[in-house]
Amino acid sequence: MKRSLTISTVVLLLAVTPVHAATTINVDAIANSSSGGVGAVTGVNLTNGQIFTVSTSLTDLWTSGQLPRWSNANGLISNLTATGIDESGLPAGTLIGQNFGAWTQDGLSAPFGALVGRIGGISQLLGANFAGPAWNTGALTLFYWDSNAGDNGGSISVDVSAVPEPSAWAHLILGFASIGAALRRRGVVGSSLALATP
Question: Which residues fall within 8 angstroms of residue 117, CB to CB, at 6 or more apart?
Fold first, then answer.
């Protein structure tokens, strides 16, 4: 009975502790454009200051129109040449991307074609790899940053994960400590009974 109670306690504790595994989201340059689409829903809810990470492959590309406008999630910040096997479909060495400067929208200035996150109505540049605190409380949505969704193309795969808040870790540690204490007491009682038995 006590053993099944202890196992049930562990299962319940793990079920209510908000530990987030990495979630993979497909962000589309047209559907998730900041200027004509809606943000890609990640399903990750964050509190202000909570640490989270976003990562993409630097070889995963999308485009904001005619050449040379291909980029990875860092956006159109420098010259990019085709590899011959990338999404552009062009021969290796062809110039497919270059610096297009920044686009300013909703109070944020970020490179065209960059991956941008929005939490609670506030946007911030994420790029290909981000690790840091949430700048607001709310659901994280992801955008392709640009001024005209009509000529966009492609999509990238984004991995998002959130580190549990300190209070969640505290509850988890306290729960395991309680289980350990209960098991220790059970062992002491069991040993006392064994010694008392003739």
Answer: 54, 123, 124, 126, 130, 140, 141, 142, 143
The residue written with tokens 């291909």 in the block is 70
Q: What's the total number of domains in the chain?
A: 2
Give the ranges where the chain is alpha helix by DSSP (H).
Answer: 2-16, 166-196
Q: Are 34 and 116 in contact (CB under 8 A)?
A: yes
CA atoms 108, 142, 132, 86: torsion sign: negative
Task: For residue 120, give both structure tokens.
Answer: 């609670």
Q: Which domain holds residue 185?
A: 164-198
Q: Are 66 and 103 contained in the same domain? A: yes
Cβ proximity of 143 and 40 under 8 Å? yes
Query: Hey, CA dihedral for 105, 108, 114, 115, is it positive or negative?
Result: negative
Cα dist. 89→3, 68, 82, 137, 149 in Å? 61, 13, 8, 40, 21
Number of neighbouring beta carbons within 10 Å of residue 52: 21
Residue 153 identity (one-letter amino acid): G
Q: Give pLDDT tens digits for 64-91.
A: 999 999 999 999 999 999 999 999 999 9
Rounded Cα distance, 63 and 113, in Å: 7
Report residue 41 as tokens. Answer: 């829903």
pLDDT in tens, 47-67: 999 999 999 999 999 999 999
Q: What angle do CA 43, 23, 10 make, to 5 degrees?
A: 90
Residues 78 and 175 in one domain: no
